Model the fold of this input.
Amino acid sequence: TSGDYGTSTSGNGGTSTSGNGGTSTSGDDGTSTSGNGGTSTSGNGGTSHSGYGGTSTSGEGGIIQIKWWDGKCYRIATGYIGENDLLPNVPYILDKDGQFIEKGVGK
Done:
């Protein structure tokens, strides 16, 4: 766990949390959470959560989640690696409609 703008890393099966704008990485089957604008990465079977404007990446069989604003309220977009064209170990952001897109590939 680290504070705002921190970096947090844990090993396989670990849990990693960082503050807004931070970077959080955990190993296989781990859980990684970062705040708004942060980057969250987890290994195979892991879960990666990012706040509003964040980036999430997960390995094979993982889950990615990013918070977004639909114009009325905040929502959480959830994606499952291997479904709906979501690839393992690829960083994802959300477009304006809350759909996952590869980071750096348009908006």
